[in-house]
Write a structure and sequence with these properties.
binds zinc ion, globular, NE0471 N-terminal domain-like, Double-stranded beta-helix, TauD/TfdA-like domain-containing protein, 6-stranded mixed β-sheet, binds fe (ii) ion, 391 residues, TauD/TfdA-like, alpha+beta, Trimethyllysine_dOase, dioxygenase, 4-stranded antiparallel β-sheet
Length: 391
């Protein structure tokens, strides 16, 4: 039984794995049940702590520790299986979000992910609104973006809507934005020229998680243009990994520096650059950064060959990302808000003329994912698991 592998005999002189078990005791002296925080410092976790007795009953391992005073712990076997590291019995992948991602190209135009304003606002739909937010965030997770229709065309309603998903993230652009093409900020977003597909704030160590836009006003005629472009960078990644695996590997490996320097008093440049495609320790793609406008001087720590390889790979990225199969163009009208997972879906726009007023905000990636996770727990069947590996 795996438990026996984790508990060495009390006679063992080696530092043992007992310390791991002792450290994970969740009795009320070791762990605060409400705040779910550890209460014991490592000075109080002896490296050679030994077991006086151990037995299994009712799906739990009960341990009496040879400590003064005597300490007792109970560990659910399901937890031990998940947490076991010698040997590992569960993959961390089993413990992570398993809900599938749906990558898309231009065909998403036929049926774009959409929820209604009413379904997520408590004043409209009462207690069901929390469930509405969960299905909204599930769509953002699955597709990397989601429209909200029927939104009142005011900044107040838009800001309230955004706060249903998480805290608004304040940056050098402010918190909640309300802007026109007046170049009030030193960024092309504040102009009326067209912008190729990009992710925002690639120059942050932690790029903005969600980007939310609401076009409050852009009458056509007399105005023209201003269509929004969305491109799924995970779709681009799939295409590259299938058709140009070397390019995909290059873009997943070489770290690209980005900067934001157009605003007085701001000079953003992350201390650690990251590649266009970032993968987790299980090799799964979890973040794309692509912003050709904000790209800094390439090549730090690269070989001359790597500089050349990067250009070849990046041109292929651009070629796929600007293909008819990848681009989804949509004209946003007042009343429709778009929520974009900025770690995945790129946005851009066509040049425009006329009076165009936009509002919106950023929400941090950790924050909206936390909101989604906690709503998932709230509505999942069965009792809450106080022995979760990560809540
Ligand atoms: Fe942008
Ligand atoms: Zn304890």
């Amino acid at each position: 039984m795996f438990v026996m592998l984790s508990i060495r005999s009390p006679q063992s002189k080696q530092p043992s794995d007992n310390q791991f078990l002792f450290d994970h005791c969740r009795c009320s002296a070791c762990f605060h049940g409400k705040t779910r925080q550890r209460l014991r410092t490592l000075a109080n976790v002896p490296s050679n702590v030994s077991v006086a007795s151990a037995q299994i009953s009712n799906g739990k391992l009960h341990v009496v520790w040879q400590t003064t005073p005597v300490h007792e712990s109970s560990f659910p076997l399901a937890f031990l299986r998940q947490a076991s590291y010698d040997p590992p019995l569960a993959t961390r992948g089993e413990l992570l979000d398993q809900s599938p991602l749906h990558t898309w190209g231009s065909e998403i135009a036929q049926n774009p992910p959409t929820v209604t304003y009413e379904s997520v606002i408590p004043a409209k739909t009462g207690g069901e609104a929390e469930k509405g937010v969960l299905s909204w965030l599930d769509k953002v997770h699955e597709y990397g973006f989601c429209f909200v229709t029927g939104v009142p065309t005011t900044t107040e309603a838009t800001e309230e809507l955004i706060r249903r998903m998480g805290h608004i993230r304040e940056t050098h652009y402010g918190g909640f934005w309300d802007f026109t093409a007046d170049m009030s900020k030193g960024d092309l977003a504040y102009s009326n020229q067209g912008l190729p597909a990009h992710t925002d704030t690639a120059y942050f160590t932690d790029p903005a998680g969600l980007q939310i836009f609401h076009c409050l006003h852009h009458p056509i005629p007399p105005g023209t243009g201003g269509e929004t472009l969305l491109v799924d960078a995970f779709f681009v990644a799939e295409q590259l990994s299938e058709n140009y695996p070397e390019a995909f590997a290059t873009l997943s490996r070489l770290a690209v520096p980005f900067h934001a320097s157009g605003n007085e008093g701001t000079l953003l440049r992350p201390p650690i650059s990251q590649p266009v495609f970032r993968h987790d320790h299980l090799g799964r793609l979890y973040q794309a950064r692509w912003n050709n406008e904000d790209r800094c001087v390439l090549g730090e720590g690269w070989t001359p060959d790597e500089v050349r390889q990067w250009y070849t790979a990046a041109r292929l990225f651009e070629q796929v990302a600007t293909s008819k199969e990848a681009e989804y163009w949509v004209k946003l009208t007042p009343g429709t808000v778009v929520v974009i997972d900025n770690w995945r879906v790129m946005h851009g726009r066509a040049a425009f003329t006329g009076q165009r007023r936009m509002c919106g905000a950023y929400v941090g990636a950790d924050d909206w994912k936390s909101r989604r996770r906690s709503l998932t727990n709230q509505f999942k069947a069965g009792p809450e698991d106080s022995w979760s590996m990560g809540w």
